[in-house]
Amino acid sequence: MSSELWSWTASELASAIAAGKITSVEATESALARLEAVNPALNAVVDPLPEQAMAAAKAADAALRTSGPSGPLHGVPVTVKINVDYEGRATTNGVVKFKDLIAPADGSVVRGIRAAGGVILGRTNTPCFSMRAFTSNDLHGMTVNPHDPAITPGGSSGGAGSATAAGIGAMGHGNDIGGSVRGPAYHCGVYGLRPTAGIAGAYSPSQLAERMIVSQMSSVQGPLARSVEDVRLAMLAMATPDPRDIWQTPSTGMFAPLGHAPCKVAMAAESPDFPTDPEVSAAIRKAGAILADAGYEVVEVPTPSFQEAVEFWRLVLGNEMRAGLAGLMEEIGDAKMKKALEVTLRGVPDVSDRDGMLKLIAKRSTLLREWQGFLADYPLILTATCWSKPFEEDFDQRDDLDADAFFAAMAPLTGTPTLGLPGFSIPVDTVPGKPMGVQLIAARYGDRALLNAGAVIERGIGPIAPVDPRG
Fold it and tell me: Is position 156 annotated as part of the catalytic site?
């Protein structure tokens, strides 16, 4: 049995370990064997931690005998992204110059997962500086999508998406400032939650300087998993309070066991601003039908503009990058990162004066007020993760790339982070070799409504099994 434990969900493993039916050592040995078997074809985990994982698994089994489960992930093997701090390991963030940037202590994510009893198998790949929708870098190389090597696994949490889809760990950690959890989930055919900004702890003590204000407000930590229940358990871990994170807010009761709570849903199956792929529209309508059958009131109605939101994202975050991170990217980033930076900033007006930037940040309140008003009437929006099918590898490196069209396609994904809204990517119509999906969006702190509805859709589409990249 233990040889198949790598294919179990986190909730299945946690329940079986707590009941004494299996041990964490058995689960971890199985997961490490899966990593060894398929990771060479994927390059998803770029910092394997087999010795540390086995030590943690043995400690979890010993603790279970004396004091019971320490948390919702007790003994469960998982992965974390290589851009968060793991004490004693380099937080490379995919940057060659950071290969020796050793973390002095665990960051919020690793601390929370360990407190919840999780066993960390290894650390997953990201693009240089974690600021690209594709996952490769000059330090660790390219990560491959287990569904199809011609399709990108997405970014920046492409390593987490690839690993989770292939069964390397029951859950993968990612982070999202412009779609970096939901995009890889979409491209790899798994679930991916961007929680409300501030819920999951995000501090890493190795950071070279405090992030600028727009990045602090927009970036979140979130899980990728093969079931909705696993996402819930992961969020219980990631929401562990960390006083070092000055943005963190309590999540009391938000991730309690899920229930059935139908509500009104605004369905946006096509974009008024970008030619929507028919397969994307079909997946959205399928999800809408599942929700309607379960008692949700699904209404096809215009939503606030995703296009306006993504243009704001490029304008406000792009100009913040010009004031800081872009200079470092140009100095020590790799060639693909520099090209992606140029694409992001292409045609974006330069707002370099104090008053202009302050007014730009203030506009966030106007946009968010419109979205919050709409979401008061329609607590959920059912729409695309991306208006296009999953991108082919290195699509953003094309010489003939239309940058405006590229971001218009990703508007539902990239537009909402600067507003702090939560979003949930769900693998509707995914089959082995061909990932597809939809997205649910809620008002701030509406994460529970996302998971409740996601669980309804999950029952309609059936379980998501790991993909074997070896065919």
Answer: yes
